[in-house]
Amino acid sequence: WRSSVRPEFQADWLAYVKYFGAKYKGAIRHWEWHNEIDWADFWKSPLTDYVAMLKGAAQVLREIDPQNKMILGALMTHGSSIGGMGATRGALQQLYDLGAAPHFDVLSLHYYTIRAEEVVYNLNESARIMLENGDCKPIWITEVGMHTATNAWLRFRVTPEEQAQYLEDVFRILPRHPLVEKIFWYDFRNRGTNESYNQDMFGIVKRDLSLTPAY
């Protein structure tokens, strides 16, 4: 999915969606369309193209099974005016302006912050934008986590004990929010053993399956 763009041939894309929708009918009922669509590392086409993709996929899957639910491609900056790191400012409002609302059933968000309270602040910003557009959908936090890499950027450098406290705070505080329906911690198991590389150190169990304080 990295650095993806809109499908060149829409008919082929919809045939692909139809095939998998039929194959997994009844087994899969929640379909997330893409990942971090407000970040250029993952989505390089305009948001208008994303909405066209989403609309087509939603129509096909709902025809196959009316119980199918569409999950908006997770936003990394909660869709507000905050940008940075190549992110699209105001992505959530742009999606509403482009008519995305009828074509997704769940708002998916990603959070990587130093404190759970920051997640709450950003979450409320997303909820505000949604409600101001006359929408009220459940929110799934499909990624939230904190790594323990030893030489990462200072703001995100934490000890295993601090990671454990962050996890406890996240799962104690966020379920109280009236719109939060599901929370997915990233990651369960370390990808590797390089303690200086952040992508290897998000797990709550180590690569050899030994436990961390967060577990």
Give structural attributes.
single chain; about 220 residues; alpha/beta; two-stranded parallel sheet; about 35% helix
Topology:
Blueprint: H1 10-23, E1 30-35, H2 47-64, E2 69-74, H3 91-97, E3 107-111, H4 116-132, E4 139-144, H5 160-173, E5 180-185
Parallel strand pairs: 1-2, 3-4, 4-5
Helix pairs in contact: 1-2, 4-5
Given the helix and strand composition, which structural class is it? alpha/beta
Distance between the termini: 29 Å
Task: Tell me the number of helical segments per DSSP (H or I, 4 or more residues long).
Answer: 5
Strand composition percent: 5-15%
Molecular structure report:
The chain is an alpha/beta fold. It is 33% helix and 13% strand. The chain is built from five helices and five strands; from the N terminus they run αβαβαβαβαβ. A three-stranded parallel sheet has the order 3-4-5, with helices on one face. It starts with 9 loop residues before the first helix and ends in a 30-residue tail after the last strand.
Summarize the structure.
This protein is 33% helix and 13% strand. It starts with 9 loop residues before the first helix and ends in a 30-residue tail after the last strand.
